[in-house]
């Protein structure tokens, strides 16, 4: 869940009132947010780097607010305030409009064929006559970072570039070139670098190195030029220094390059809807024309309003309330979903604004109605669903056996299903290839290399960790191992096992043998060569006393 | 049992006196170590009320090692005087004597000797008195004879300062006859034997009383693991509520069933290498229900069933990737798909409690594997209120009555709610688990009828267990490193009390 940190006083100022921490926490809870932490820059620095470093840092109180992962419209102060104000019916949701420039042609972004190989999509827009303050500017930068981390999937899907339009001149070209052919002065650097040089420069950059892999191995890198050949950006890595925005920037050119066009449109919509309130004509965004390699053109940002029609009855039935059509329309309007009762008095026409890309189905609208109604105001009812319970036979038998094994004096261990290759192979004098083990491709440590193929290694590790305990140790575990099995759709299956270990100063084979006899007795299996059970010496190479080792843990059972 | 001879002697002594006697005195007069008498007293006490012994402590003065030496040979200053011949002695020679240094300064202050600093051949000492009274020695001799009371406190403290005397505390017993006093002792029996019953000798025997202060002998038994005990209880609760157990014995799952079938988009962060364990062998799943797979592809990439969809390029290769399941909801998806294939829909209530795996950073509350508890109800016309009602009943059975619900986000449920309960100890609302109504984009492609709603909730098994048993670090509960003593000592699990 993304966390947004906002200055408390700034937030209260924008909300037009102050709250106690408890009141604000309550408001968040109702709205599906979580006031995660109340802190300050000073607190954060002192916690991370010590008190001395924190000296002089700001002690302005910060609210850290957890925002649901699909609500990109709440990732900055502007969006949070708008959402809460509409929810509290202090304001109406603004209407965002795409406008054409008054006295000139719209900006154009021309996409060339070469981008197909690396990052085929791009969209763009202009924020005209915007007024930044330090806070607005910080929030603008912060929102880009939040979007990059969330919906943009760390810039793999979408990367945002923002530019001072007055320093560059269109039309702009989005193309892709071999890294050696790209040369520019990147943001906050003193000289020009080729793309190749940049990639090695940023290898050690704590922030940018995480994005290099996205294009590193491609034959061509994406790049955006203006009509004079000035580099705006080399997405998704870095912008050019030339067009960087500042507090004094009046006109902002925003471009989003992407591997996923839907996400690019959403991200562009978010950037412009959140900040167009600071434009001379608030809530308007100047269009940009994008020209595709095939000559097609599109106007962006889309800022599409979509209409859905649903009935009050649908909402009442799904939520479990019985509200009037009018009230439900009001509830939805509180959630920025402007709603009107239609002429039949039953249907509601709901308008989904461009900020609510999370609303993709009627059930999303239903949830918003339930939230506005208040989850905790909904009467709690008992479904009349009549069913008869059944236990899974395998689990039922496991439960029964566990009880009886404890009654037989053995203590239940609980060990991990994942372990190292060594645990199931080398340490048991086996070759890993003969284990039928399933291998994990991305373990962070050796402890998670394979799914176990035997319970024995876990039990032995339990013994090893408990050498201080009085002897003897009698341990058992009934649990699943995992084996490759080509007859299954995933190529593997679980296998329920019982394993027991007796650990004492003297071997006591008869103890473990006796337990096995007891288990067989419980399972109504008689000793004997025919239909019964018998033990035979195994050629098990298990490290110690091979002659006395027999494979108890291969007594697998099934529940039927 | 102490030496029987000594015990009997002690009893005879006690019999002879009218009042009582002190164990120290007995030791002195018998010439035995005081501890031996103490042992005899203890063993008599164990026999019942033969004697009564009251512990007392007394202080008395004793000579130190140096004190003993002085009592024997005279004080250092007296010895200085007696060692000086008439013609005197060089100071340097005197200082070589063992008692020289201390004796010299004391004798000087007593004016028993004089020092001629200017004497030819170095400073020389002459005695000024012929006879002297060695008071220090006299006082020490008094103490040695046990007549310390004749000295004044001040005098004693002065000698103590010179480390000649020390005050010692002596613990002793004041022994008197008990209500069952007898000079002959009978050994008490500890156990009633069949022979005693047969012969009737039990009637004459005295039995040793039980010691209720000590712990009994621990029974030789096996133990169930506390987490599994809690699992049993949760299982019981679901069964009481009419829920059928799902077959969750498949740790390895395809991304298709774990994510795609749940309408979780392929770019979702949960599908990242950092969060999920992928398999290298067997790396891919094969065999999917083809028509269903096609409907899933379509709802993701194009929408349908009333949905806009996610509008991205859905890839079969992503769906085929095998993983260690990240939630048991993958099994719920398989079960609901199976249910949808029935000729006629029947309402179901399902549950499972089993392991799930996350490739997460490990800390005190997170391991790479944990147990997920999950409940699912599918029926026509279920409401959000029904979900809250059933959660209320479920948590009631755990003894949790105060619940509230927070709107949340989850890719496959809408609405989604986090369940919070008020924790009386922590005085705040704590998150218990997640719940929600499965999205139509998940259910309709499976083929479930339009009006069927499926509600579900999930929580971890470890968290309530840690709260229940007061364990702060998950490693102390799960895995091979747990202390077996914790398993041995864990109480029965009653979740509702």
UniProtKB/TrEMBL annotation, chain A:
It is found in: Cytoplasm. It is an enzyme of class 6 (ligase). Its EC number is 6.1.1.20. It comes from the Eukaryota. GO terms for molecular function: ATP binding; magnesium ion binding; phenylalanine-tRNA ligase activity; RNA binding. One of its GO terms (biological process) is phenylalanyl-tRNA aminoacylation. The keyword Flavoprotein does not apply. Pfam families: B3_4, B5, PhetRS_B1, tRNA_synthFbeta. GO terms for cellular component: phenylalanine-tRNA ligase complex. SMART domains: B3_4 (SM00873), B5 (SM00874). The keyword Thylakoid does not apply. Residues 303-380 form the B5 domain. Its cofactor is Mg(2+). Keywords: Aminoacyl-tRNA synthetase, ATP-binding, Cytoplasm, Ligase, Magnesium, Metal-binding, Nucleotide-binding, Protein biosynthesis. NCBIfam families: pheT_arch (TIGR00471). Belongs to the phenylalanyl-tRNA synthetase beta subunit family. Type 2 subfamily. This is Phenylalanine--tRNA ligase beta subunit. It comes from Hucho hucho. The lineage of its organism: Eukaryota, Metazoa, Chordata, Craniata, Vertebrata.
From TrEMBL, chain B:
Heterotetramer; dimer of two heterodimers formed by FARSA and FARSB. This is Phenylalanine--tRNA ligase alpha subunit. The lineage of its organism: Eukaryota, Metazoa, Chordata, Craniata, Vertebrata. It comes from Hucho hucho. It comes from the Eukaryota. InterPro entries: aa-tRNA-synth_II, aa-tRNA-synth_II/BPL/LPL, Phe-tRNA-synth_IIc_asu, Phenylalanyl-tRNA_Synthase, PheRS_DBD1, PheRS_DBD2, PheRS_DBD3. SUPFAM superfamilies: Class II aaRS and biotin synthetases. Pfam families: PheRS_DBD1, PheRS_DBD2, PheRS_DBD3, tRNA-synt_2d. Residues 229-491 form the Aminoacyl-transfer RNA synthetases class-II family profile domain. Keywords: Acetylation, Aminoacyl-tRNA synthetase, ATP-binding, Cytoplasm, Ligase, Magnesium, Metal-binding, Nucleotide-binding, Phosphoprotein, Protein biosynthesis. GO terms for cellular component: cytosol; phenylalanine-tRNA ligase complex. One of its GO terms (molecular function) is tRNA binding.
